[in-house]
Amino acid sequence: ARSADREREIAASAKHGHVSFGPHRPPRRNELTPSQRAQLLGRPRSVPGAACAPTVAEQVFFDRVRAHFDRRDLFPEQRAVAARKHTPYSEFVKCLHLFGVGVIGKDELISLLKGLFIHGNVPRGGSSSSSAGGGSSGAAQAANHLLADLEKVLVGRGPFANQEAAKRLKGKHSLPLREESLGSSAKPVTVNYTTYPSDYVPPKCSGKTEHERKNLNGKCFSMPRDYPTRGERHYASPELYDGVKDRRNAYEEVMCRVEDEMAEVDMAIERNASAMRALRPIRDEAVSLAEQEERDGMPIGRLQYKLKLGSLNSVHIGAIARVYGESGDEVIQHLRLNPIAVVPIVYSRLKEKDAEWRKVKKDLNRGWKAALTDNHEGSFDVKCVSYKREIEKSFSEDRLIEECQRAKSFAKNPSKIPQHPATTMMLPNFHLVNATNPILGLFQPHLSVLESANMPHKDAFGLLETYINKVGPKKMKEAVSSFRSAFVEPWFGLPASTPPERPTVKYTPGQKVRTTVGDGQVVSVSDDAGGETPFRYLVRFGFGTGYVWPDAIAHVLPPNVATVPDGPSGEDGAPPPGSLMPEDVQVLFGTESVYLFMRLYILLVTMLYQAKDIIGRDSANVARRIADPERGDVYESLLSIIRDAIEGKIDEKELETRCRNLVKRDVYNFVAIPPLVDGCGDAALGVLEEDLYMNLYHCSQLKLKGIKQTRLLSLEVTDEAVYRMQIQGSASQVFFSYLPPEMELVTTNPRAETAKPPPAESRPAPMDTDEKAADPASENGGNAAASEKPAEGTVAAKEPDLKRPKTGVDAEGKSP
Description:
single chain, five-stranded antiparallel β-sheet, disordered C terminus
């Protein structure tokens, strides 16, 4: 047996807990097990749990009770109250304890406290409080106030208080109110303040005094009037701003993610180490006490060990629960109830996890270091993403259509043109008229873009073919090749990518043929096999004479079919001088699909041309070429990277990283090319599906002097040919304008001064019949009606409108 003095010595030697000896208390009825406590009560904030702290109202009430028992009129005999063993305050606490454990009810508690507050003692033997001793009227009045306040204190805790708190939590409105749609229930008081809604339940503050209630604001809250209409780019508070997310820099996002992972691992290791430091002395003391009990031969469970208040805080508890996962809360409850047995086990578990996590951190450090090294340089290029976004906006379909349709507005108000440093070289020029070169006939609002045959057209179409082969059907491959050789290359004056096939059937001058633009008669054949002039026919139609490609001729017409009315012609059946457009000018009236493809294709070759220029001006590339002449071409490497991005082999971030490894400057010009290729490829597929481009192109190749005739022919093909596209090879420019069918095509300069009509005596005499016959503008040469002189003071009749020829062919091969 062990003496009581020895046990007191053992209890005094404990520094980190409280030691007691005695039989273990059996569990009470309906007491929760550790597992049930973990499920119902959750994770405690500290072990052992802190005592329940009084509220402000409770503390004030108890202070008033102490002051009440110190009243002189309550004890007129002046007895030494403080010297007594059973003071009135201790009796008051005993009454509250009996009520708390359920021995007495609320009515009995009020009866006991009424006598205690008025007479200073508890009535005995069932006598009423009124007959138990004397008491002044002031003490009785103060006692009544205390009993009234006791009612409020009693309902401040327990089920009723929980019910009231739940009502506030289930209120209609939640904080912050400025993020809710309050409607008419909240009215603005000033510019920045609005009243609370009528159905809003404000939180209660029991510590407010009467002076504070009068002066503190409780009727309105801060909310600017323009807060709901600020838009998405405004933030409700500085805490919501995330610079990395707002810039959307992929490199910064990776670095921030790595930093977050490093912080999480470091915090987990440090919290685990902090819990180990807190548990180590407790573990040593618990093990020592357990070994002492075993040496003394004491029965298991006789020594009871409880931790001191505040031994483990929330950080330590969270670290312990983390290593046990889903069972962490239950382990914490076992640790609270039986620390002498649980603490050594928990400490061993923490020690194992500490060694494991530190080993894992070493492996993660290598990956983190590589990620930080790869993304460090790219994180400084904060403008790449924003500049790329602006470039993508510049070639959106809506923007391109708006530029053409609103060319007049942009020409008059250049400030309305969306401008950005990244798109300076790609913006078109807007004009009202082109008076400097009247031969172009551009006398309506239009835009112009630069284009040259020296630009990398071959590379651009190679990227387009890569995209079309990826997304388009297999039958589109041959259509794309024909689209390139029959339309794109002739229009831009590019050398043929494939040798053209010589037609097997040739038509001789004088034969009547049916073409895609109408019936006509072959005038001559341009067959310069060894020169640069392509093989084509010069055909005279009823509306004029122009060149026709061999594939535009359907078949020969019988000799007896009337196709071309007799009209003026030059020597050897050639058209009269001046009836054809210059060779370097082509005018095409196309659909919206053709217009979008033209604009996107020109933007693509322009961006590739800029890429070559940036690579050539990069000093690092120049130095590498000088140091290593056998080094591969950087531009070809760039094209290979872009092809991989188009085919989906690499993502946007990998594309930007590889481009930055090749060229250190202006990377946004390179990463914006794949989206442009996608858009241009979709536009090309739209043109091929529409299947009108060849007929429209044949109309443009007639080289008619009157552009109105070309437009009428194009509108006969389709009513959607509302975009005028014109290219001048010598000036390296392409012009675009929007001409809906109801708009008249202007062929004269509206800005030219209109000359006043000369006096009658100075007017030239009208041409006679012979002169009019020689004039190619007169109709049918010697028409008598046309040869009549106009009356003096009248205006000559307008030129009659030219009828659009029928281009369709029925099933029998006859013209409709």
